[in-house]
Amino acid sequence: MYIPDHGPIVWTVNVKKDIACDTRQAPNTDRPRYNLKRFPLNFLNNNKHIQDTIDKIEHELVTNKDINSAYTEFVTLIEKEMKDTVPILKTPTGPSSNKRKKSLRKPYWTEELTSLWNKVCIKEKQWLKCKNCTNLRRKLKQEFCNIRNQFDKLNRNTKRKFQLKEQDNLSKLFQSNNTRDFWKYIGNIGIANERRQNIPFKVKTDEGFSSDVDVVLDKWKTDYEKLFNSGDNGNFDNNHLDW
Questions:
Q1: 10-24, 47-61, 180-194, 212-226 — which is least confidently predicted?
Q2: For residue 27, pLDDT beyond 50
Q3: What was the pLDDT predicted at 23?
């Protein structure tokens, strides 16, 4: 039998067919979201429905030996009880419902960044929705990566320029010896805007920390009494006391 010592090196196949990528939006199959913080006391309180479901589950397990159908019966019962007794959360709509909206707390944020960020979101959606065409999907992914890199670069540059400007302003205020405006300016930067405004209603006792109202108020009362009714301290000189 003769065996050839080589095979085909290049093989070209021409296929005359248009393949379109399905970019249609998939139907919305999201389940309703329930308000579990308002869970009712009468959940699974219908004994007849529960017993009927138990009978169906036993029938599927014993007679049909079908665990999937038995589990489906259980899920059907829970879903029906949730639908009948648990309130549904309202889904917000409109511009404010966009979870990916950039925080307005960033002081350096600009309209240009907003426009570029919206383009990033559009390109990402186009890429993720494309499921069939390899070439088109690869192209959409590359476009998304390019626009994302542009956004990241602009975001870094804008943030860096803003920080340099803030440092320059602080340096000028410090050199002018205007301490009042200097500390006021620092108070408006960064972490100062996120400080908690409320005093934590908690005190430290001999047994640990306590948030009990009577314990906290009594602790505050005792500490302030000691603070304002303390006797003369010999460690302070007359100049300090006169001041």
A1: 10-24
A2: no
A3: 46
Decide: helix, strand or coil at residue 132: coil
Structure-token match 């065409």, residue found: 133
Express the helix, strand and coil content of the chain in percent, nearest 5 each: 55, 5, 40
Q: How far is CA 147 from CA 116, 123, 136, in A?
A: 8, 8, 17
Beta bridge partner(s), residue 208: 205
List of long-range contacts for 23-30, beta carbons under 8 Å, 24+ apart: 23/126, 23/129, 23/130, 25/129
> CA dihedral defined by 129, 135, 141, 145, rounded to 10 degrees?
-160
Measured distance CA(56)–CA(241) in Å, rounded = 86
CB 89 within 8 A of CB 33: yes
pTM of the model: 0.38
Tell me how far CA of residue 14 lies from CA of 11, 17, 122, in angstroms: 10, 9, 34
Helix axes 47-58, 67-85, angle to 10 degrees: 170
Does the structure show a pLDDT above 90 at 209? no
User: Cα dist. 12→5, 6, 19, 133, 232 in Å?
Assistant: 21, 18, 19, 20, 101
